[in-house]
Design a protein that fits this description.
With about 200 residues, this protein is α/β, with parallel strands linked by helices. The protein has 2 domains: about 120 residues, Leucine-rich repeat, LRR (right-handed beta-alpha superhelix), CATH 3.80.10; about 55 residues. Helices cover about 40% and strands about 10% of the residues. The chain is built from 5 helices and 7 strands; from the N terminus they run αβββββαββααα. The strands form 2 sheets. Strands 1-2-3-4-6 form a 5-stranded mixed beta sheet, with no helix packed on it. Strands 5-7 form a two-stranded parallel ribbon. It starts with a helix and ends with a helix. Bound molecules: 2-acetamido-2-deoxy-beta-D-glucopyranose. The site of 2-acetamido-2-deoxy-beta-D-glucopyranose (NAG) has 3 residues, from loops. Its main location: membrane.
Length: about 200
């Protein structure tokens, strides 16, 4: 097998990956338009990685509490979505799901999604949650702020380490350069005191 053939096979497999049915679901091709992905009633605790060409998505009656940000963003051709009967935990992490659902104007929702926890939001439809109710995860700063802070601290620490390493490297290279300079002077000259050596050169 040539390298080119291998690459082609890899490419085909790679493209195929995006269309693979999640292990815990059953998939059916619908009129060659896309997949009907049925992951309902499987006690799922996490949203599975869904194929790009999903057009009907059934995730109802599972144990989903949250949907990681971005997890549905690649599903551009959805026509039907059912996420009902899941114990959604409606803290600030549910915001992605709430906003994503609001963006799905073209797809049909089969049932309303309701929060299970925390107690203050129990049985509230996701669509009716307001910003004030989505607290609970925020520290003294908004979450994005905290994330930025952590990222900044890591970056600054990294920069300091790099600076220290660089100054060490400069010091070592200076010492080396110095040694080389010393050894470059002919041994006989080294015996002559510096001051004399200088005057000797200038003549
Ligand atoms: C929900 O899922 C459970 C298994 O997790 C199943 O026993 C039950 O019948 C399902 N309920 C509905 C309404 O589909």
């Amino acid at each position: 097998m040539s390298i080119a053939e291998g690459l082609v096979i890899l490419l085909v497999l790679g493209v195929g990956q995006a269309e693979i049915c999640p292990l815990s679901c059953s998939c059916k091709l619908v009129e060659t338009k896309g997949l009907k992905v049925d992951c309902s009633s499987r006690r799922l605790k996490e949203v599975p990685v869904l194929p790009y060409n999903t057009i009907k998505l059934y995730l109802q009656n599972n144990s989903l509490t949250t949907a990681p940000a971005g997890i549905f963003d690649h599903l551009l051709n959805l026509e039907v979505v059912d996420l009902s009967n899941n114990p959604w935990h409606c803290d600030c992490h549910i915001l992605y799901l709430k906003l994503w659902m609001e963006d799905q104007t073209r797809s049909r929702h089969l049932a309303e999604d309701r929060c299970a926890t925390p107690a203050s939001a129990k049985m509230r439809p996701l669509s009716q949650l307001t910003g004030n109710e989505l607290t609970g995860c925020a520290g003294p700063w908004p979450i994005t702020c905290q994330e930025f802070l952590v990222r900044d601290i890591i970056l600054i620490a990294f920069a300091i380490v790099v600076l220290v390493l660089m100054s060490c490297a400069v010091r070592i290279s200076k010492r080396l350069a110095c040694c080389i300079a010393v050894t470059e002077i002919p041994p006989a000259m080294q015996l002559i005191p510096k001051s004399i050596r200088k005057s000797h050169k200038s003549q």
